[in-house]
Structure prediction request, 330 residues.
Amino acid sequence: MWEASQLVIWQHAGMKLLNSRTITLNTWDFDNEIMAESSEGVNSAQTKVVRSCYSGNPDKCFEEFRSQGKYRNLYQVENNTADVVKSPNSVRFVCISDTHTRTDHLLEGGVLPEGDILIHAGDFTQRSRREEIVAFNEFLGQIKHRFSHIVVIAGNHEAQLDATWTGKTLFGRKFKVRERVVPSEAQELLSNCTYLLDETIELLGVKIYGSPWQPEHHNLGFNVPRGEPCLAVWNRIPSDTDVLVTHGPPLGIGDRVGECAGMRVGCAELLSTVMERVKPRYHVYGHIHEDYGMWCDGVTTFINAATCHTPRVNLYTVPQNKPVVFDFQL
Ligand SMILES: [Zn+2]
Prediction:
């Protein structure tokens, strides 16, 4: 039995990696494939994440990870912080995601708690049309007085904000001229928030990193192939990140599609990066509407904040999941 057959945390006493941007590491050779390494993603302790050999098969990878005990410390956390007074010397975060144009109910009394920082983890539109982005920004304008800061990332539905997206249609429909948006307009159109695209912002003493990418799924936005390409994206996350915001979930935690016993679709490389290298205090995401919830492994609290509950979103779907609130202790 090959121990840790999917994930290798490479801890190296030498400085070789720091001296070279790309280096082939011969200590790990699986299925005749030698892992190519880069110096990105190495933290101060030189913890190195290597991609899983089962990256392309999340269900199988999940079983392997589970047999290795990666989820053994995980427990569910109740989302009840909104009901208690904010802890002293803390920053209160309110998290929503996957609203898919349905923000109307969040304006009703008592639905959206007040806080210091509001996070939206992507999929605020349905088809990334200009009018949807403008409407979302108007919604943010109506609630911005209730927060010190609002931080937003894109999701796969915001395909027009992805500079690498080459699709001509989304969900079978072409964009009309008035619906089109170019990625460089994102922050301008989202003037009522800070829009993060693979970058960090420090707010109220908390370092927040946001990234919209997720393992590829159909021809939507911010798709990246599983395995090494995903790892390259996550290697950009600074190791001193306090709150990580991604659109997609890590493998095995809030990533199950279907109502019960469904497939796992989270990213193995994201889980490895979070658990073994970055170890943020909080990881906020959405994308998989059916697996909303909050879990903790004693190091990181994982939050699937998907506001829409149903897997298929349409205009008649009422978002059901309440915003997730936590206090970040300074
Ligand atoms: Zn969504």
Notes: The mean pLDDT is 84. DSSP finds five helices and 20 strands in the chain. Residues 98, 100, 123, 155, 287, 289 surround zinc ion (CB under 6 Å). The longest strand covers residues 22-30.
